Structures are given as structure tokens and as C-alpha cells.
Predict the 3D structure of the following.
Amino acid sequence: MKNWSTYIEWNPQEVVYPESEQAIQACVQRAIQDGKKIRIIGAGHSFTPLSKTDEILVSLDQYQGLVKVDKETKQATVKAGTKLFTLGDLLFEQGLAMENLGDIDRQSIAGTISTGTHGTGLDFGTISTQIRAIRFVNGKGEMVSCSEDENPSLFKSAQVSLGTLGIITEITLQCVPAYKLALQNRKEPLEAVLSSFRQRCEENRNFEFYWFPYTQSTWTKSSNIVTNEADKNSFFNYFTEYVLENYAYKVLCEIAHAFPSQNERVAKISAASIANVKKVYHSHKVYATQRLVKFNEMEYNIPIDAHEEVLKEVVRLVNSKRFNIHFPIENRVVKGDDIHMSPAYGRDSAYIACHAYSKKDPLPFFKALEEIFRAHGGRPHWGKMNTLKTEDITQLYPEFGTFLQHRAEQDPTQLFLNPYLKTLLGLA
Ligand SMILES: Cc1cc2nc3c(=O)[nH]c(=O)nc-3n(C[C@H](O)[C@H](O)[C@H](O)COP(=O)(O)OP(=O)(O)OC[C@H]3O[C@@H](n4cnc5c(N)ncnc54)[C@H](O)[C@@H]3O)c2cc1C
């Protein structure tokens, strides 16, 4: 098995693809009987060894689809293995949509929420905040349900759990009526975008920007709901999104990899090729972009008010240290929440994400940036590379103790922990 970026490889004894909730429960009960450990995988799009195991790996690829939809409350219960691209279409058929999403739609819904995956927008929390109820099989082989009314504290731990409470089987989402988004991509100067980031986020439903290393250029993306605009998705859009951002970019990545001194030039060429593009379409098709060039990623959540200072430090560091990287650095915002292990716990947040081509060792670059993020109270995205230790989690997450208590109650024999998670959670 390999994760999406191919950075993490492992060799499970057995990969199980249950097709029903009963089969998922039976798989857990069998593992308990046989004294085996289980890890769960969604779409393998995390950059950390969350799913690594040499024992049983459970995939819910054969357990996808809608369970039920309540048109009045606009709540949809979905099978946990459902991929976001399938979910978007299924909800759309019901006249519904998710209120916000991240950059891609390849992940499973359970994998998405388990690491606190997010999009951008001051009015939107991580995708975990869109959940109203969760059902899972715990480490004792029991079915457990939780929601804001039923076991509310357990629910707050289950909303972002890194797959350590059990196998999530069903998720109830609060949806909204289907809507169209108009997305505007622009090239804009860094200084102006950085100093007005908060304002731009207030003016647009979803706003984010990418800064290109060694340049003064950013690529801004703003989207807003439209009701009367005709669909717009020209061949030029397709060409820039699919061909330039993927195939042409892949060639540039290979050149920069073969000739490291060319990274700066590649960053400048990429910045120069940003096109002003407008797209109008159904929301789930607008959020999602194609990511065919493989990279590794680290992303940190920082308090929103620290964003300008932190990014200025990042810009200074990258421009002075010349790490031989060229991927643009992504900046987004997320509303604070009350989910125990959510990086956005208790604070409106900005997220800064850095990427390195998959063939390159990302660690020197990531570690240098991580020091800046950590100095500002940064909390990592759980699915992305980081060097956080248990002591850091204890200090950064006020409800970490509550989370550990729920974990111990739901999985007393540590059926769902691998060595990485044991060390991370201080249970090794
Ligand atoms: C190209 C790319 C783009 C990305 N864009 C974004 C973005 O825009 N925003 C963002 O926040 N993140 C983004 N990510 C990160 C990604 O969303 C997260 O890593 C997400 O967790 C991956 O989902 P997955 O289905 O692949 O889960 P996996 O990576 O396979 O698993 C993630 C976690 O979920 C657990 N899990 C999976 N299924 C279950 C289940 N049924 N029950 C219990 N636990 C389960 C796993 O054990 C693991 O701990 C991106 C990643 C890539 C590779």
C-alpha cells in the first residue's frame, strides 16, 4: 500500500473491504478474537502514517452511497466510505449540497472529517462542523451512535478522531439547498493581498490565495453564490486548470528536480502563467480541482490575527534560504469550532500550506517553516506532515484529556492504534 503522495509505504497482512455495517462489525469482532490490530483507510490522501499497519487494513470502498435523506431538515445520512465526488452528485440529485468543501473531492467522507479537512471562508468551520451525527463500531465490537443530543461529549471527540475511536460507518450531514458558485481566479501583487486578506475574506464567501516563492505574485481565488448567472466553463478554463496546472506543471517540476538551481525560475514561470479565469457552475464542481502532480504537504493552523505576520516571516525565510522549492504557498481561513481535536478549536483560524514535489526530500523546508508556525501557536492539519509530540498536543488542545478518555473507553485494548498513533497520543 502507498499513500497518495507515495511517501508512505506499508504491507498489511490483510486488506478487508466490507460491504455492509454488519460486515464491518463482524470484521472488528474477528480481529478481537484473533488478537489482531486494525487500521482504517479512506482514499489514502493523508501525508502522515495514519493508516499504516502490518496487520488488518479496513477500506470502506465497497460501502458507499446515501442511507437516507430528510428533505425537511436537509440532513443526509451517508455511508462512511462514500467519496466526496460521488457524494456531491448524490446530494445534487436530492437538490442538496455541502455548505463548503476543500480543494479536491477524491477523499472519503470519513477520511475527510477524521483529520479535520477544511476549505476556506470566514463563515465556515472545518468539514467536521457539517456533521450532525456519527455511527461507529468501537474497539469492543459494539455499535455506538453519537450526536449533539446523544453522547454529546463523545460526539465532539468523534468529529475529528484520526480513526482512533473505531470504524465510522455512517455520517449524518447538515446540507444546504444546492447552489451555484462563481469562481474568479486572478493574479495580484502579494503586498496588497496580504494586507487586505481579512477584508477580502469578509467580502467574498470563499477567498484564498497562493504566494509563489521568490516573486511578488499571488494567485487569488474568490467564489460567491450566484443565482441568475449562466454556467461558464470555457475551453480556456479547462486548458488552464487541467493542462497548465497539471501536465505543463509536471514538466516544470521535473526540470526543477533535475536542475535544482532552476526552482526559482520555475516559480517565476508558474507565477507568470496565472490567468484571470471565471467559472460559474454547481458548487461541488467548482470547489474541486484536479491534482495530478504528486507532492508532499505540511499545513498549519494559526490564529487568524497572526496570519499577516506569520506569512511575512515565511516569505522572508523562503526568499533568503533558497530551499530549492517552487510550489506556491496556500493561505485560507476557517471559522473556530468546539471539536476536541480540531486544529480550529476555540479560534477563528488561518491555514498556511506548503508543498514540495514528491521526488524531493521535503523535511528541511517543512521543518524550517514549522518553527515559524509553532512559534505562533500553530496546530498542524492531522493529515499533513508535522513533528508534533504528545507534550505539544497537551499544551495546544485544551480538551486532549477528554479525547483520550473517550478513546480509552471506546477502544480499551488499543485495537485501532498503530505505532505512529501510540507515540503521537502518548500511549506507547
Ligand atoms: C491532493 C490533495 C489535496 C488535499 N486538499 C485538502 C484541502 O483542500 N483541505 C484539507 O483540509 N485537506 C486537504 N487534503 C488532505 C486530505 O483531505 C486529508 O488528509 C483527508 O483526511 C484524506 O481523506 P482520505 O479519505 O484519503 O482519508 P485517509 O487519508 O485514507 O485517512 C485519514 C484518516 O481517516 C481515518 N479513516 C478513514 N476512514 C475511516 C472510517 N470509516 N472510520 C474511522 N476512521 C477512518 C484513517 O484511519 C485516517 O486516520 C488534501 C490531500 C491531497 C493529497
The longest strand covers residues 180-189. Residues 235-258 form the longest helix (24 residues).
